[in-house]
Amino acid sequence: MDYKVLKVEINNGIGIVTINRPEAMNALNTTFFNEMDSFIASIRCNSDIKVLIITGMGKAFVAGADIAELVNMDSVQGEAFSKIGQNTFNSISALEIPVIAAVNGYTLGGGCELAMSCDFRIASTHAKFGLPEVSLGLIPGYAGTQRLSRLTNLADALYMTLSGEVITAEDALRIGLVQKITEPEHLMETVLLIAERIANKGNTAVKKAKSVIRKGFAMNFLDAAALEAKEFGALFGNGESGEGMRAFLEKRKPNW
């Protein structure tokens, strides 16, 4: 598919999706959601991609939703547009492979919600995060009210959402919204090194680990631990685990 908003690169098992509307600060619109849905559907069965990176072109990751599309909506249309975004971001979270947000700049509103739908976030020191929807008389609509409290804590989620304050990358790191920050010129280098590290691990094990963590997070501890035991056992005898353990004992790199 030829994309108008997305730029896609796939090299050595790592996919990079760049949101490419710098003239609009990469604001999310219907075209973005249609293209991202199409891209996600196309890679679900692509075993060549082991890790996916999402980033933005220019000085913004994503500066929010395209307000020009929203301003004349009624309540029915607003709810439908919210569900479109939620479905797209849920499909990102549900991918078997790890998804990393490389946060290069302004990450506001729907952009912050997009970043939160990824498995973790690596940010430039120039990045800014916020859910400023209350300034428009709105609330986050792409599950931001739910993801932020789960990634950080209730008080910080309430503070950011109710005040609409835009926070620095350092503050985002402090509250757990991002996992690492780096100088802007080293952002993609850092993210690619992390992606390569993951891609060089057992692919089935990486997928299983992501699945167990995400499913277990919504379960009580004992049920989640039982799920872990089941999936741990399922990895034995699949070839990959045998090679990994033999390589460890033989002091060599595994040949996946």
Structure overview:
This protein has helices at 30-43, 67-70, 75-93, 110-117, 144-151, 154-163, 169-174, 187-199, 203-217, 221-234, 240-249, and strands at 6-11, 14-19, 51-56, 60-62, 99-103, 106-108, 120-124, 128-130, 167-168, 180-182. Helix 3 (75-93) runs parallel beside helix 4. The protein has 256 residues and is α/β, with parallel strands linked by helices. It folds into two domains: 6-199, 2-enoyl-CoA Hydratase, Chain A, domain 1 (Alpha-Beta Complex), CATH 3.90.226; 203-249, Orthogonal Bundle (Lyase 2-enoyl-coa Hydratase, Chain  A, domain 2). The protein is built from eleven helices and ten strands. A six-stranded mixed β-sheet has the order 1-2-3-5-7-10, with helices on both faces.
Summarize it.
With 256 residues, the protein is an alpha/beta fold. Helix content is 47%, strand content 16%.
Shape label? globular
Show unreliable segments. Answer: none
**DSSP, total strands:** 10
SSE ordering:
EEHEEHHEEHEEHHEHEHHHH
Give the strand content: 15-25%
Summarize the topology.
Elements (H helix, E strand, L loop, with lengths): L5 E6 L2 E6 L10 H14 L7 E6 L3 E3 L4 H4 L4 H19 L5 E5 L2 E3 L1 H8 L2 E5 L3 E3 L13 H8 L2 H10 L3 E2 H6 L5 E3 L4 H13 L3 H15 L3 H14 L5 H10 L7
Parallel strand pairs: 2-3, 3-5, 4-6, 5-7, 6-8, 7-10
Antiparallel strand pairs: 1-2, 8-9
